[in-house]
Amino acid sequence: MHSTRSSVTEMSTPLLSIRGLKTCFPTRAGLVTAVDGVDLDVYPGECLGIVGESGSGKSVTFASVIGLVRSPGYVADGSMQFDGIDLRGLNADGWRTLRGRDIAMTMQDALTALNPALTVAEQIEEVLLAHATDLPRRGRRDAARARAIEMLRLVGIPAPDKRIDDYPHQFSGGMRQRIMIAIALSCRPKLLIADEPTTALDVTIQAQVLDLISDLRRELGMSVVLITHDLGIVAEHTDRVAVMYAGQIVEAGVTRELIDRPRHPYTRGLIGLIPRLSDLDAPIKPIEGQVPELIGLGGTCRFYDRCDFRASRCRTDIPMEAAGLDHQVRCVRVEESLQ
Amino acid sequence: MSIAVRVPVMTAERIETPTWQSLRRFAADRFSMVAAIVVLAFVLMAVLAPWLAPHDPYETDLLRRLQAPAWMEGGEWSYLLGCDALGRDILSRIIYGSQVSITIGLAVVLIATVIGTVLGLAAGYMRGWVDIGISRLVDILLGFPYLIFAIALMAMMGPGLQNIILALVYKEWVVPARVVRGEVLAAREMEYVEAARAVGAPRLHIMFREILPNILSPVIVVSTIRMAHVIILEASLSFLGIGVQPPTASWGSMVADGRAFILDAWWVCTFPGIAILFLVLSINVASQGLRDAFDPKFSD
Amino acid sequence: MNETQSPLLDVRNLEKVYHLNSGLLQRIARQPALNLRAVDKVSFSVNAGETLGLIGESGCGKSTLARTVLRLHEPTSGSITFDGRDITKLPHREMTALRRRMQIIFQDPYASLNPRKSVEEIVGLPLSLHRIAQRSEIRDRVVAMLESVGLKSSHLGRFPHQFSGGQRQRIGIARALILNPSFVVCDEPVSALDVSVQAQIIALLGSLKRELGLTYLFISHDIGVIGHVSDRIAVMYLGDIVEIGPARELLRAPQHPYTRALLSAVPQIDAGPKRERVKLSGDLPSPLAPPPGCKFHTRCPFAVERCRQETPALRKVAGQGMVACHLEQA
């Protein structure tokens, strides 16, 4: 399941390429830089995990990618290329054709993301009629309905031809998440951004939904970005992973390698936080302190205050540096801290 | 979609209660602030009427019967807004009339809010028969048209300031009671209420100390809006002649008095009408501002 | 575990039924009564000094069970014995006095603190309600309590919205512990928090337990968390306890198919051999109309005819655990 992505990354060109992304939100307390200099590549067919706690900028990064940064927030700097298109140069029309057709996003809370006043059929058909180019001229509506039923069957809704005319509230939480995935996938996007797709779900349902996303990725050959706070999910479902902290990526690499040999003190802290069923005696080691406020940061490592290995050298802007094959880390004391 | 941005926790040591924050938001809203100042000016006018009024509002002078405002032909600067059919100074009567409007508006809303809040709290928190009893009573009272109900009560009790207040309170408490009951139904499910029960807090403590402070904002907002209604109702009753009795100056009865001369002496009924309009409008604008400022979400 | 000592909390056949559709109008309209059996004849005990972990998915009745045990909700039937005393029908006044010894920490650190009250008022309230301390003394006790949960005396006059989620949860813990209770229900105390804060709160609850000799009923849907804090674990499904036993035993060799499905569904970060995945089909049935027989049979991959007809009772199996399942396995 975990093919070594490094061979792929060397050969193919990325589907999505982000360089130096910076997204800001003006607040009364000052300018919050929620995303500060993020570089990311998503390759065709891969599943990239984005891990971080709230305030790490993981959701804002991808809200920037699909042009849905909430006002008064704005993308301040950087470039974003998707499949040969410059995303920052897109106008509203460009966005409308791109979103839903080539890039789709699912939200954490399926109940508020679905329109409660429309049936499931109406919501899927709306997307299909707007974007699908391969529907026949004659009988577009019938074709869209047939495609919608097919999508619901694909995501595992029982009796989809009957349930398609139900409203979102008539479905359970897990089923609603599936419906949202069905809507997102109905136009066969090249990239699916799944923002905490299972946080609101129970663990047995979570497993079903994540398996579904993995299966569909293989079947449809799309790329998936899985945004989550759960390293367990990352370990089981992604090929590569980027760890975010306070608006920056602090470590990125092939998933298995990064989890087995974490370099950044924060990544190691995160892994140490996870209660493992396989070893009940391993203590859960908290990371003391709090995430810094994202105002006027810079000139120091952002993890400085909470780091066990901080030194005077850390009081500068730390660059990402290679730490092995397809493994980068933002820490100047990797060698010392690993000893 | 919800992209959460971590808004920094205020680190300043200044202590900010949620109420204080709301008031500051209100003060920042210019338009509502102006309206609030106008309302305040009316209140001051009522309090300072004896010093502000240029003439005795009851002093009749048949020689000045229907005298025009100062800027018109036959007008006089000492009788700025002219005189009514009995030759009384209209400006002075408007100034004194504000006493009636504001006293009744404040008294009715205050009494009704206290009664309504207590009954609404009881209905919403205790549920059961208390709730059924209060809620049915509310439904029944809501079934009567307000003005006709008040007219009927006034007819039974007879005119007078106290009776107007009573007649209006009889039905007015229903409004805050309904608002409070609804808010309590939502608030009683909050975990902090359960937490108070878990530490052994008695019922009255939970109702008045835990829940009440949290639902006070909507109650205040509704009460201000209702004050405008009550002022109009009082004016209506006085207009119909069953409110405040002559010779006491009331804007409603002044409009009624002027009605007969509307073609010859438009100022007799127009100026008190404008006074009603201004006061009610200002209260409404100010209460809108209050509603915005007291939005239950404390974030900005 | 000491078998001879009597448990601090003993719950027998506890049942909590909510009657929906029982309003006046519905009764007049002769609508069929809907009974939501949130807790269905549940029995368990908690020994002094131990942590009983209660795990289950949303809607399984675990929070209702905890609130019914504390009599924040009144039980429909069954009995609750606390420290040798039957408290099921204890009059209001005596129950209030007993609340000093039984406390609860809530899940949502935003909803569980009154937004209009300062930290001093929130944490000091239990003291003034129970008239334990003089007015002058209350502040000192509150400060001491705040310090032991990792907050400062300068926080006294602040309001809940001025704190982060983790700090708010500390305030909730301070409120629960200021009365020196012996039994504390922790109702999903960390599930609303970020992972790094989660670990801080778990560590805090652990050290407070050791210092103050507390007994916890710890509710969570997170098996990793439950595994780490519990001495024994009970698994709930649709209002029933389907399996209960010592934590290690239960996690190492889960008996009930539901427990096995639950454990195998948790994503693991470790490479290496995975637990054999027990895949469940379908969704949780409506608790308003639970399936007959074993309530789990609609989703159980091993269900046989007997499961559809007969309700299994908790029975002893190998080791110290108990399981409610007809199947003979492991």
Describe this protein's structure.
- The complex is a heterotrimer of chains A (339), B (300) and C (330).
- With 339 residues, chain A is α/β, with parallel strands linked by helices.
- Helices cover 34% and strands 22% of the residues of chain A.
- Chain A has 2 domains: 1-102 and 189-286, 3-Layer(aba) Sandwich (Rossmann fold); 111-188, no CATH class.
- Chain A has an 8-stranded mixed β-sheet with strand order 6-7-8-3-9-10-12-11, with helices on both faces.
- Chain A starts with a helix and ends with a helix.
- Chain B has 300 residues and is mainly α.
- Chain B has a single domain, classed as MetI-like fold (Orthogonal Bundle).
- In chain B, helix 4 (90-126) runs antiparallel to helix 5 and helix 10 (203-239) runs parallel beside helix 11.
- Chain C has a single domain (9-101, 181-323), classed as Rossmann fold, CATH 3.40.50.300.
- In chain C, helix 5 packs across helix 6.
- The longest helix of chain C is centred in the middle third of the chain and has 18 residues, at 195-212.
- Chain C is globular, with a radius of gyration of 21 Å.
- Classes of the chains: A alpha/beta (339), B mainly alpha (300), C alpha/beta (330).
- The interface between A and C is large, with 43 and 38 residues.
Layout of helices and strands:
The complex is a heterotrimer of chains A (339), B (300) and C (330).
Chain A: H1 5-11, E1 16-27, E2 30-42, E3 47-51, H2 58-65, E4 74-82, E5 85-86, H3 92-98, E6 103-106, H4 110-113, H5 120-131, H6 140-154, H7 160-163, H8 173-185, E7 191-195, H9 203-220, E8 223-228, H10 231-237, E9 240-245, E10 248-254, H11 255-260, H12 265-273, E11 321-322, E12 327-329, H13 334-338
Parallel strand pairs in A: 3-8, 3-9, 6-7, 7-8
Antiparallel strand pairs in A: 1-2, 1-4, 4-5, 9-10, 10-12, 11-12
Helix pairs in contact in A: 5-6, 6-8, 8-9
Chain B: H1 18-28, H2 30-47, H3 49-52, H4 90-126, H5 128-143, H6 146-157, H7 161-172, H8 174-187, H9 191-198, H10 203-239, H11 251-259, H12 267-293
Helix pairs in contact in B: 1-12, 2-4, 2-12, 4-5, 4-7, 4-8, 4-10, 4-12, 6-7, 8-10, 9-10, 10-11, 10-12, 11-12
Chain C: E1 9-20, H1 24-28, E2 34-46, E3 51-55, H2 62-69, E4 77-82, E5 85-86, H3 92-98, E6 102-105, H4 119-129, H5 135-148, H6 165-177, E7 183-187, H7 195-212, E8 215-220, H8 223-229, E9 232-237, E10 240-246, H9 247-252, H10 257-265, H11 305-309, E11 315-316, E12 322-323
Parallel strand pairs in C: 3-8, 3-9, 6-7, 7-8
Antiparallel strand pairs in C: 1-2, 1-4, 4-5, 9-10, 10-12, 11-12
Helix pairs in contact in C: 4-5, 4-6, 5-6, 6-7
